[in-house]
């Protein structure tokens, strides 16, 4: 493992609180195994410790968070055991700390988008997604680093500097939710709120070995959730969603963040019969304009598909032939634009491209229909999120590699990032699981199945819990 000069390695994890997911933390607090103050304080201390090397947290509300945690404990002390248990339904995240990327508004916290020209600007309200989490009892502890305006896949800005990958400080944690993914994997927060216009949830989750989910369009409210113009917000390519350290937390947090669309999501995931689900898979995008998937990623992907077939009886079929160059060039706007500030694959959708009339087979809506028709109902596609890991700034010369994720923003399909262990360099392996619009439960059912086999998130820090 390579460390950047003058940065100390992440300290060992000595407190078991830091190894629990949100589901477990909420249960510990309800049942009095740990107080909300203990949980929030543990994450604050950890966030301070790891931020020295990760440069992830850029503004905090630590003192206010501790006060709010004490108030939670005061209220819990007045309740009976039955009343406490009822909080599982009414306040499922009571006492659980969370963070969000800096472009997603958190009241009182920096809201600059990493721009020097906006230095000192604070959010005067919460994004609706954050409001939902707070209403469920979650306690905000701060906001994290983003690239400028949140439009790049490397988390760095002139205002805040560069965030580092907790597994190797010389590598990128991705973007634009890279501050969130870095802090989450380093155990500085148990729950992260990200946004995704071209892979900005799924890519960082892959780089840092965590789970992330880009929901179907209109599942999670975008109100005060990004700094993009209304054209982008209305295009259905942008989504707000969670990053977590367990697959089950994706379901829990989405039920909170998307109370209408995700109502009953836990039940739908539990009832999913994977033997009835068709598993399409591909090793990459089968085009010369993106990097080939490396051997370790290919091996992990094939092992995941084989496991789903052998353990659950899922039907599997390779799909490379129809994820072809002819499709990708139109989604990317390749040859028409010099650089995709809106993440390549969304350019055609967000622009008025005259070359492709609506009756053309290459018009994006027709491409979306072709893809959906090919996948068919009750099916998912398993495909790499990116071909490999990148050192800082290296992705500048491999920008079209983000087409692996941006393609599914353009086609409005939900996708989950699922970790699959570590490679021989100690870097996370992973895949994205993509489904048809509003079939988010299939992504999560597959994610939970793969977590059982491959172990999910693996700590980048030594664990010294007694």
From TrEMBL:
InterPro entries in alphabetical order: Amidase_CS, Amidase_dom, AS_sf, FAAH2
GO cellular component, one term: endomembrane system
SUPFAM superfamilies listed in its UniProt record: Amidase signature (AS) enzymes
Pfam family, one: Amidase
Amidase domain ranges (all copies): 39-261
Family: Belongs to the amidase family.
Protein name: Amidase domain-containing protein
Organism for this UniProt entry: Petrolisthes manimaculis
């Amino acid at each position: 493992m390579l460390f950047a000069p003058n940065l100390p390695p992440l300290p060992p994890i000595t407190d078991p609180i830091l190894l629990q997911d949100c589901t477990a933390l909420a249960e510990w607090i309800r049942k009095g195994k740990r107080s909300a103050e203990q949980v929030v304080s543990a994450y604050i201390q950890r966030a301070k410790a790891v931020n020295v090397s990760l440069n992830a947290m850029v503004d905090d509300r630590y003192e206010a968070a501790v006060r709010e945690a004490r108030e939670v404990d005061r209220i819990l002390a007045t309740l009976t055991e039955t009343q406490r248990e009822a909080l599982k339904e009414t306040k499922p995240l009571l006492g659980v700390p969370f963070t969000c990327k800096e472009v997603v508004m958190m009241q009182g916290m920096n809201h600059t988008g990493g721009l020097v020209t906006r230095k000192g600007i604070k959010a005067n309200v919460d994004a609706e997604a954050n409001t939902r989490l707070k209403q469920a009892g979650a306690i905000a502890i701060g906001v994290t680093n983003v690239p400028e305006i949140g439009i790049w896949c490397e988390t760095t800005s002139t205002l805040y500097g560069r965030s580092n990958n907790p597994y190797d400080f010389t590598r990128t944690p991705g973007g634009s939710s890279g501050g969130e993914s870095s802090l989450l994997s380093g155990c500085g927060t148990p729950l992260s709120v990200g946004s995704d216009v071209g892979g900005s949830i799924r890519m960082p989750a892959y780089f840092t070995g965590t789970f992330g989910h880009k929901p179907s369009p209109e599942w999670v409210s975008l109100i005060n959730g990004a700094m993009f113009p209304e054209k982008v917000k209305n295009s259905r390519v942008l989504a707000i969603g969670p990053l977590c350290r367990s697959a089950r937390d994706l379901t829990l947090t989405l039920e909170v963040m998307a109370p209408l669309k995700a109502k009953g999501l836990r039940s739908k995931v539990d009832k999913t019969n994977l033997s009835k689900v068709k598993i399409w898979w591909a090793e990459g995008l089968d085009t010369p304009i993106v990097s080939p998937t490396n051997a370790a990623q290919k091996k992990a992907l094939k092992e995941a598909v084989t496991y789903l077939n052998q353990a659950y009886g899922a039907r599997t079929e390779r799909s490379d032939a129809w994820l072809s160059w002819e499709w990708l060039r139109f989604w990317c706007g390749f040859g028409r634009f010099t650089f995709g500030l809106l993440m390549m694959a969304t350019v055609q959708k967000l622009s008025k491209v005259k070359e492709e009339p609506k009756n053309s087979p290459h018009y994006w809506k027709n491409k979306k229909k072709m893809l959906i028709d090919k996948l068919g109902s009750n099916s998912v596609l398993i495909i790499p999120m990116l071909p490999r890991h990148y050192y800082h700034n290296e992705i500048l010369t491999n920008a079209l590699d983000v087409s692996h994720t941006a393609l599914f923003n353009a086609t409005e399909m939900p996708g989950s990032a699922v970790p699959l262990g570590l490679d021989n360099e100690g870097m996370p392996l992973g895949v994205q699981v993509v489904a048809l619009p509003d079939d988010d439960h299939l992504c999560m059912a597959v994610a939970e199945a793969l977590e059982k086999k491959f172990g999910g998130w693996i700590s980048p820090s030594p664990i010294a819990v007694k």
